[in-house]
Amino acid sequence: MVRSTLRTKADFDRVFARNERFFRDGVGFYVHFTGSLPFRYGLVTPKRFGNAVERNRFRRRVRELIRSAISACRGIEVVISAYKPYEELPFELVKCTVEWAFGRIGKMLRQRNARAVSSCQP
User: Fold this and answer.
1) What pLDDT score was predicted for residue 87?
2) What CATH number has the domain spanning 3-114?
3) How far apart (Å, rounded) are the C-alpha atoms in residues 29 and 13?
4) Judging by DSSP bridges, how do beta strands 76-82 and 27-33 pair with one another?
5) Is residue 1 within 8 Å of residue 72, measured between CB atoms?
6) What pTM did the predictor assign?
7) pLDDT at residue 31, as a whole number
């Protein structure tokens, strides 16, 4: 599966403009359903999160969690944003939160697909 990242401000703004967002344990998830386009993601870690080493460590860990996530599929753009400082987000908490979020995103995608199929039937 192709995984690419959101790179430009316009990419991030498109995802932020949607009302599909949820938060848990100091991490925010913004979702944009794109139809059949490839899965794309972006990571946001503000300076208040910690120093550069901590921000990059968080990004590396989340990228690895995304790579190992089986539920990542086509038609989704996700921005993951950290809101709590690094010391308050142990890896196990982030791992559980990301797994929960991808489960929720998969459920949202199935519901959207079910509505689309039911609206097409006579």
Assistant:
1) 85
2) 3.30.230.10
3) 14
4) antiparallel
5) yes
6) 0.86
7) 94
